[in-house]
Amino acid sequence: MTASISIGTDGTGNPVLVDVEELLATRLLVQGNSGSGKSHLLRRLLEESAPLVQQVVIDPEGDFVTLADEYGHVVIDAGDYAERDIVRMAMRIREHRASVVLSLESLELEAQMKCAATFLSTLFDAPRDHWYPALVVVDEAQMFAPVAAGDVSDEARRLSLAAMTNLMCRGRKRGLAGVIATQRLAKLAKNVAAEASNFLMGRTFLDIDMARAADLLGMERRQAEQIRDLERGRFLALGPAICRRPVAVRIGAVKTSTRGGTHKLMPPPTTAGEEFQELLFAPAQDDTPPPPPRPEPAPVPAETVLQQLAAAPLAKPEAPQLDFGESEPVTVAVLEDMVADLGEALPAASALYQDFGIRCRMKGLKAAPLDLPAFRKRFAMALAGMADADDPRWADALRVGQGLAEDMLAPFLLIARAAMQGLPCPDDHALARAYGTSSPGRVRRLIDYMERQGVIVARTDFSGKRSIGVPGLGLSTAAAEG
């Protein structure tokens, strides 16, 4: 079996080949205006490489779900599942090497960005034993790695941009090869685009996009005009996985298509204007009732999708053998060591989880004993001095705090532990460190928020000392300087 695939032909009719092994190491950037054939190119690349490598498609418009019919991809409709289900599926995808299409079309833009960020981050944070090679194709990448936040929140942009940056900058060592496609290079974050070494540039009309495309292809600015003249389905290709000099390629045929197909010309009905007027302005009671809406298909249960991932046609790797008998004491010791080694700034959860896995292997475990969601909870406990999850003293505090957001759990548990042990109220510095911030203002807003939720009650005496009560425990911290 060769590792090269054909994506089309050059001007003389010779096939243009893509070395898939080289592509895994060097990544790919595709640009093309709407109607240039960009999605057709991605479909050709996916169809040709399907027998060679695992594929993960981030599909904001649902264009690639038809790959399931011909090539056995598992389709995940993100709108049907909660975040925890998406995390579980992403972990199983890496474990079982299943090719999947994550369809985001039923979500709004901000929800698409957050879902894609969660999904990509979980792929990125997979245990080392599951670092198998995979093509990760992201269509409309300018949505997930935008230059500016636009109509979405800064938080959504930050999460999505971080996940895309990890994919393109650090994904190679984890077996993840980013293939990103965009309509506008000028709208795509430069640190994401700059990590690709292979390029397929289609038709574009704006000067700023032509200039960036010419720079990436190593062409002079005056040569950029030819990008404007490219026909639909023609791209300029360059890169170590394709060719060493720019070459024009006509993309070949594909076996599958979008669910809606392509739009063709359809002449309007030949009806006189008077007849149209009668049809449009007829009294409502004369209108025939509209046909009943087609019933929406029932969402596929998450467990069913997980079973499909486990039964994917690609070979299932042998599951790592974990030392479960000794894992809990090691987990507690590793978490306590990590908290002791922390500086003032709290690293991102993905970096902490990677450090956790390395420390566990250094202690003799064959793999990390916690998945990412469980690690976040246990690390929050460790920050509050509750590293041992089996200690029954912490059960009530965890119960009271279970409704809080994940990033608020650590500062709440710090307060709860102080209340349970009659210790002075944690100061702003300690709460800020547990919350992952250095801003006193954010700490004050955090306390106000938890108080509005009824989880805590803060009091400040005339001397300026603060104490915080936890109604769910019936206890309060001792007063201390805030």
Chain-wise SSE layout:
Blueprint: E1 4-9, E2 15-19, H1 20-26, E3 28-31, H2 38-49, E4 54-59, H3 67-71, E5 74-77, H4 83-96, E6 100-103, H5 109-124, E7 134-138, H6 141-144, H7 154-170, E8 176-182, H8 190-193, E9 198-201, H9 207-217, H10 225-228, E10 234-239, E11 243-251, H11 273-280, H12 302-310, H13 324-341, H14 349-362, H15 372-383, H16 395-401, H17 409-420, H18 428-435, H19 440-452, E12 457-460, E13 465-470, E14 475-476, E15 480-481
Parallel strand pairs: 3-8, 3-9, 4-6, 4-7, 5-6, 7-8
Antiparallel strand pairs: 1-2, 1-11, 9-10, 10-11, 12-13, 13-14, 13-15
Protein name: ATP-binding protein
GO molecular function, one term: ATP binding
Pfam families: DUF87
Quick overview:
The chain has 482 residues and is an alpha/beta fold.
Description:
This is ATP-binding protein. GO terms for molecular function: ATP binding. InterPro entries: AAA+_ATPase (IPR003593), ATPase_Atu1862_pred (IPR014588), HerA-like (IPR008571), HerA_central (IPR002789), P-loop_NTPase (IPR027417). Keywords: ATP-binding, Nucleotide-binding. The protein is α/β, with parallel strands linked by helices and 482 residues long. 40% of the residues lie in helices and 15% in strands. Residues 315-324 have low confidence and may be disordered. The strands form 2 sheets. The protein has an 11-stranded mixed β-sheet with strand order 2-1-11-10-9-3-8-7-4-6-5. Strands 12, 13, 14 and 15 form a 4-stranded antiparallel β-sheet that branches. The chain contains 19 helices and 15 strands. It starts with a strand and ends with a strand. It has helices at 20-26, 38-49, 67-71, 83-96, 109-124, 141-144, 154-170, 190-193, 207-217, 225-228, 273-280, 302-310, 324-341, 349-362, 372-383, 395-401, 409-420, 428-435, 440-452, and strands at residues 4-9, 15-19, 28-31, 54-59, 74-77, 100-103, 134-138, 176-182, 198-201, 234-239, 243-251, 457-460, 465-470, 475-476, 480-481. A hairpin with a 4-residue loop joins strand 12 and strand 13 (465-470). Helix 13 crosses helix 14. It folds into 2 domains: 4-258 and 300-310, Rossmann fold, CATH 3.40.50.300; 324-481, no CATH class. It is globular and about 80 Å long.
